[in-house]
Design brief:
The protein has four helices and six strands, in the order E-E-E-H-E-H-E-H-E-H. By secondary structure, it is α/β, with parallel strands linked by helices. It has a single domain, classed as 2-Layer Sandwich (Transcription Regulator spoIIAA), CATH 3.30.750. The chain has a six-stranded mixed beta sheet, sandwiched between helices. The longest helix has 18 residues. It is globular, with a radius of gyration of 14 Å.
Length: 138
């Protein structure tokens, strides 16, 4: 799937965060249930990587992900909305849709709510399309 040139930045039970040589974070979710504190740590580290490198793009690989619950959705929206005031450049996220139908619905709900956040998302079925979209952004 992803090339060996990616460097691991962080990993926990939720997933892995990788540094892509083209200048964006790769956020790969693992299958199975999550604990809220693990999800919070996971996404906080993703945000720190973006800030540390001065990046404004990420690829969210949610293909194996379980659906977000209401508490997770609320925290995610608050976290990204909070970043809005801290970011000079808008964030862009290419999201590979989850295989699980209920997880897709969960992601779609967050995307609708994300319009007020500082992040612009596009949903993709194929990795190559997501990577191409990220490459064409400045």
């Amino acid at each position: 799937m992803l090339t060996l040139s990616l460097r691991l930045y962080f990993e926990n039970p939720v997933g892995r965060i990788l540094e892509h040589p083209d200048g964006y974070a790769v956020v790969q979710y693992k299958a199975g249930p999550r604990q809220l504190d693990h999800l919070q740590a996971f996404l906080t580290h993703a945000g720190r990587l973006l800030q540390l490198r001065g990046w404004h793009k990420l690829l969210g690989d949610q293909r194996l992900m379980a659906p977000f619950n209401d508490t997770e959705r609320s925290w995610i929206m608050e976290y990204w909305l909070d970043r809005k005031d801290k970011e000079a450049h808008p964030l862009y996220g290419a999201v590979l849709l989850p295989d699980d139908v209920f997880a897709r619905l969960s992601v779609s709900q967050i995307m609708l709510e994300a319009k007020a956040a500082s992040m612009t998302y596009r949903l993709f079925q194929e990795l190559e399309e997501a990577e191409a979209w990220l490459r064409q952004l400045d």
